Amino acid sequence: MKSLSLFLFPFLFSCAPVFTAEITGYILDAETYEGIPGVEVRLYKNKPANYADDSFLYQTSTGNNTDIGLFKQTVIWSDYLAQYGKDGDVIDMHFTIIHPQYQSKIESAIGIVSGAANSIPAITLNSLNASVDELQGSVTTENILTNGIRVAMYLGEEEIAYARTITQTINGVDGQYKFENIEWRDGLLTGSILATVQVEDPRYTNSNPSQVTQEIFNQENTELLPEINVVLVRPTIFEANISGKTTFLIETQNTAEYRPISGIEVILEWFYDDENQSIPKRDIVRTDEEGIFSTTITWEDPVPDNDNSVPNGEDQVDITVSYPSGGITGFSYNLTPFNDTYTIRSWIENTMPTAYEYIPLPEEE
To answer: 207-241 pLDDT, tens per residue?
Structure first.
């Protein structure tokens, strides 16, 4: 053991008396006065120059499985000039107290008595960890509180985001974001740090302001951050889902009955380049056993539609839906509507009117 080689061995070969003493103490959090586990305690005969001084005689800790913060160490020494001769001695001991989440300390214990259990005053450490419960703000598009926008928060001078989230409905209000249980290492013990929040979502641009900031203080309530307004980036390629159904409409004495027609060929035609209408596109689908067809179409339109009913970032296109020759080779259906043009919208599910063949009630003879 290092302490023996540095402190005791030179005296074991002399006639000087040898003494022992037990030293115990508590390491506590300066704010909560709770014990701190995992604190490294080094003991020195002479006061150490700094926390990294390796001339310590003993090394112990408060342990990792306890929250009382207790350390205990037996020390041994020999001295020709013991204060009470062979009957006893009194010495001073010095300590470095080190924990990665607390500010390190150098402490001294004056008057350690040999042959006794020496309890030193509790040593308190200032935590390097600071925290706040939450930080909240909001994001709007065209001054409308909007959900689903990605935001990021940065702490201090860090270039990597501390946390990311999306705007959502909080307490019945849309467009809100909230960062919770925010923690940081307060190495300078200032008790505060600058939090910066900004929108980081490629679907949005022209953030105003570009970012919002607030100095947050350890264990104190935060204020609501100023609102950020962004503009939705309008895409140039759009898609829409289309579905429809084909049936027989059979009239009976008391009611009308619908029966699905499977295998009907449905042709959809539209202009892929909606602005110049120079590239026609066609999609052919067939109805399933339930008489239903569905497909997804895409088109390009770099210029926003002048129709005020079209939401920002969305688009619409005209499409022709037809059922040629009834749809099945060898069979003839008189489907209504046989073909027609419809406006397809990118922001909704587009359901075509049901195409049906009317089978009237048989005439009585």
So the answer is: 999 999 999 999 899 999 999 999 988 888 999 99
**Strand 212-217 with 204-208, pairing:** unpaired
At 3 the three-state DSSP class reads helix
DSSP notation for 104-163: -EEEEEEEEETTSEEEPPPEEE-BSEEEEEEEEEEEEETTEE-SS-EEEEEETT-SS-SE
pLDDT in tens, 177-204: 999 999 998 877 788 999 999 999 988 9
pTM of the model: 0.55
Q: Please name the helix (run of DSSP H) or strand (run of DSSP E) that holds residue 250, with its range, or none.
A: strand 237-251
Number of CB atoms found within 10 A of residue 55's CB: 12
Q: What is the pLDDT of residue 14?
A: 55
In the chain, the domains with their CATH numbers are 2-125 (2.60.40.3330), 129-232 (2.60.40.10), 237-359 (2.60.40.10)
Q: Taking Cα atoms as reference points, which of 343, 357, 351 lies closest to residue 264?
A: 357
